[in-house]
Design goal:
Alpha-Beta Plaits, four-stranded antiparallel β-sheet, 10 helices, 68% helix
């Protein structure tokens, strides 16, 4: 028995409009502005370097900016004390070799006192980057399809569309925010989106499991009442899980450094949006598909 008695389903018409505005705005931003794809997705050069003396990550980023490398990524490899880094810089296909040489020259000039040792240089062509981009989006689509099949087998096929609508809702809004802020979209972000999908569906499955219990025990009650009871009974668990996850993700976002900054930015957004969609998108959507089934 829950101490809460909120009418979640009663707010569904309002939250539907709210969600549609954000989803349509996100789609418009994606179509008109597009994503700022990182080196992984649009091609560029990679240089792995190890310094004989300690070099600060921010000093490397500052140096790259001063040499007009507009789209670049720097990440530490191994322990910070190793001073080993992977530098990624975007470039067109005809400039790939020139960019690699330019990075090498920059390192040997700006960090001559730190004894830079170039361990490896690689180039990623635009076609390879495009294929990687397609594969990344395909991974998300396959994840959504597998989740849909799992929920249909685990519960009932009428539950599956609601879960998928909620997950698509979460991913589209996060992508829209990346378009709006012009943040770099890389393989790391695809991984974060897949993590958000897993987190969000876990919340949804907990609610669905409780709805099914009420369907078995309270045959005389309306589906609306069963959903409201399920949401109220799992509300404490939903809030506590979301708060604890968000706190950890936010600390990592603030304190984790530039390498994982965007990854945990997505996780923070995913926790907030995923909690909302579990309450106001996934569960109430069951009503729509139940009516569709009856008709």
């Amino acid at each position: 028995m829950s101490k809460y008695n909120f009418n979640f389903v009663g707010k569904f018409p309002i939250t539907t409009i709210f969600s549609l505005i954000f989803v349509l705005a996100s789609i418009y931003l994606f179509a008109s502005k597009g994503l700022n794809y990182g080196v992984d997705f649009k091609g560029g050069a990679e240089v792995q370097v190890k310094f004989g003396k300690t070099v600060n990550l921010n000093d490397l980023r500052t140096s790259l900016k001063s040499h007009n490398f507009k789209s670049s990524q720097v990440q530490s490899i191994g322990e910070a004390s190793n001073s080993e880094y992977l530098i990624k810089v975007s470039a067109s296909e005809k400039d790939l070799n020139k960019v690699t040489d330019k990075i090498t020259t920059m390192l040997k000039t700006d960090f001559a006192n730190q004894n830079p040792d170039i361990l490896k240089t690689d180039i990623v062509g635009p076609k390879a980057g495009e294929q990687l981009r397609i594969s990344g989006f395909q991974a998300m689509i396959w994840a959504l399809l597998m989740i849909m099949i799992y929920i249909a087998l685990r519960f009932d096929y009428k539950y599956s569309p609601g879960a998928i609508v909620a997950l698509i809702h979460d991913v589209v809004i996060i992508v829209g925010i990346f378009c709006l802020l012009d943040k770099e979209f890389s393989l790391q972000i695809v991984g974060a989106l897949l993590a958000v999908i897993g987190y969000s569906v876990n919340d949804t499955v907990v609610v669905y499991d409780r709805v099914r219990e009420h369907e078995e025990r309270s045959a005389g009650s309306s589906l609306k009442d069963k959903i409201n009871k399920a949401l109220n009974e799992t509300l404490t668990r939903t809030i506590l899980t979301s708060i604890t996850t968000f706190i950890v993700a936010f600390i990592m976002f603030m304190m984790g450094g530039g390498v994982i900054h965007d990854f945990f930015f997505v996780i923070c957004l995913g926790v907030l949006i995923g909690t909302y969609s579990s309450l106001y998108v996934a569960a109430p959507t069951i009503l729509f598909f139940d009516k569709f089934k009856k008709n």
